[in-house]
Amino acid sequence: MKSLRLMLLVALLGVAAACGDVAVVSPATTVDGDTATTVVEDANAVATTVAEPAPTTTIDVPTTTVPVTTTTVLEISCIKTTTCQYANLVGVDFSRLKLDFIDFSVASLGGASFVGANLNNSLFIRADLSAVNFEGASLKNVDFTAATLAAASFKGANLEGAVLCDVDLTGVLNLTKEQLEKVKKFKTKGKVYCP
Predict the structure, then answer these.
(1) Is the pLDDT score of 68 beyond 80?
(2) d(C-alpha 191, C-alpha 167), whole Å
């Protein structure tokens, strides 16, 4: 019967503690042989039982440090506003996208892929297009004035009306005579400036 009262008292303690405005006073407990007697000094006090804290175990976990990178965040969101001037778009895959009328002037696009993309009327003035893949891309009326085209591939690209002004084409890959005949203005680097 005493153990039932003690259990009820502990349950009431849990409910009272949840209310938040109840003061809990620890009663004095004496042990006589097999029975325990709880003495409460205050009539409003509630008996409590205190559990021993579990022993703590320490585990050594090796720490991993993230190496510092020297690359910057790619600025792909500029495509939404059609102004990617000075953007860092190195190695981005723009394959088969419609990207006409976008200004990529002075952007870093080294190693990017524009395979099968529609880039009609876009601007690549003074852009870094090193090792860019324009295979099968539509480049009608695109302005490549003073762009760096080292190792860029134009295999099967439509260059009708494109402006290649002040551009060094010695390192360009897969550029045919037929493609160059469709170019609007063509002056190699070091020659007369193209307006």
Answers:
(1) no
(2) 10
